Amino acid sequence: MKIGIIGAGNIGAILARKLGAAGHEIKLANSKGPESIRDLAAEVGATAMTKEDAVTGVDTVILSIPFSAYRDLAGLFEDVPDNVVVVDTSNYYPFRDGAISDVDGGKPEAVWVTEQIKRPIIKAWNAVLAATLAEKGVEKSQPGRIALPVAGDDLEKKSLVMQLVEATGFDALDAGGLVTSWRQQPGTLAYCTELTAGELQSALEKADKIRSAGNREALVKVFMEKGSSLTHDDIVAQNRAGTA
Q1: How many angstroms separate the Cα of 110 from the Cα of each of 14, 224, 232?
Q2: Partner of 219 at 20 to 30 A CA spacing, among 27, 175, 207, 236?
Q3: Cα dihedral across residues 179, 184, 188, 190: positive or negative
Q4: Quick one: three-class SS letters along 48-74?
């Protein structure tokens, strides 16, 4: 499959490496231009491109950019065929992205993204820490495999993305449509908590929309206060405790 990835930060670069290793042809782009990521692209087995070229002649586009940056992509998909799958891996954090009134008012992040880029998306790989994505993917046969939620309204496109999630070493769990994708946003028990498929299904069902934003802000405060003293396992444990 030909895949364009826009965003070469932690998640984007890891996905480029993993999906390239799985045999997919990867185009990698960022906001600064291909020269700025030429070495990284070569290292992960991708080809550095402009974002316009990254969405041309591909089967799937993965967007792994800061949440607020979606406002800058309004015209990017105008000439991209409707059958191209678009995946959103982002999350909303007001301290970084600035306040977005629609999302603060309860609109699911994925719905807001769809409105910004004028293109329906599949929400995937947003509920996983970069270290988890890089280091904890295992073969399907391994017990205790971590599961990741995948939300979207187009069943065929969602199924394809779920196959890609599986290729990165995780069980893919159908998390429903975009309207209910808030269940995998920051501040919920499904977000960055390293759960098995059964545990993740239960977490999605128990998600509390009213509490999620408060949970998110409380966790951000803890992480900022403790900083580098937290190990990866500490972060996962804190996410679990802060959303239980």
Answers
A1: 21, 26, 26
A2: 175
A3: positive
A4: ECCHHHHCCCCCEEEECCCHHHHHHHC
According to the model, what pLDDT value does residue 74 have? 85
* pLDDT average per 10 residues of sequence, the chain (244 residues): 96 97 97 95 95 97 96 92 98 97 97 97 98 96 95 98 98 98 98 98 97 97 94 97 94
Tokens of 100: 């977005």
Say which amino acid occupies 141.
S
What Å distances lie between residue 191 and 29, 103, 150, 162, 165, CA to CA?
26, 17, 12, 17, 16
Q: Is residue 231 situated within a structural domain?
A: no
Q: Is residue 25 part of a domain?
A: no
- Give the pair of three-digit tokens for residue 152: 């979207």
- Return the CATH number at 171: 3.40.50.720
Number of domains in the chain: 1
